[in-house]
Amino acid sequence: QQQRTAMGRAIIRDPRLLLLDEPMSNLDAKLRTQTGYLITQIQRRLGLTTLMVTHDQHEAMALGDQLAVMRDGRIVQSGRPIDVYEHPIDIFVAQFVGTPSMSVILARIIESDDRLAVRVGSHDVVLTDNSRALRPRVGNDVALGLRPEALGRDTRGQLSLDVVSTTVVGHERFVELAIDAPRVTQRGTRVEVVDERGSTVVMSAHAAEAISLWEPCPIAIDTARLHFFDLDTGLRIP
Description:
The chain contains five helices and 16 strands. With 238 residues, the chain is of the alpha+beta class. The strands form five sheets. Strands 7-6-5-8-16 form a five-stranded antiparallel β-sheet. The protein has a five-stranded antiparallel β-sheet with strand order 9-15-10-11-14, with no helix packed on it. Strands 1-2 form a two-stranded parallel sheet. A hairpin with a 2-residue loop joins strand 5 (103-112) and strand 6 (115-120). It is globular, with a radius of gyration of 21 Å.
């Protein structure tokens, strides 16, 4: 009620711009959803330009027509939420936007039978798109980004990975898989390769799909959905 009253006090002044500073941070899950609908309805009915600050990127993706990701007081990337999600400018944005976040691991660009491939740990995955931007990087390490939807269970898949855990969220099941490649992160402008022999990646599956914890899971990678980042700058390789 306090949040609704505060919005009413602001709107009754007929403002040109409405500023919302984490308006739903203190609400429980159900009220957050209801208040989100309320804000969207009011904004569209009044045609009022609204700037909302939130640390919850799920809220930003759901409510925003335009999304601006900030780091250290500066806008790193802006655009439509789906564009920022599918074309993140660097590792920081890639791992910040999306639930679950993008898995970013160390990989190497190689050539296999005159085709480009990416070596991830002990696995080689042939790329269907021989990107010109990647060809000069043959023999070099890069950061490889994988969204959950880029991985799928397939008996003819390129990888066979051990299942660490599974989590059901609505109609989706998120499966955490162990892979023998270290994790890559970005803190500020500095890219770090975590000093570990292996890490995990997350796969999306239907909640009804049976995933065994006791045997390796065959995985197919949609190579058209892979993301590549420069290890020095963290920037996305187009």
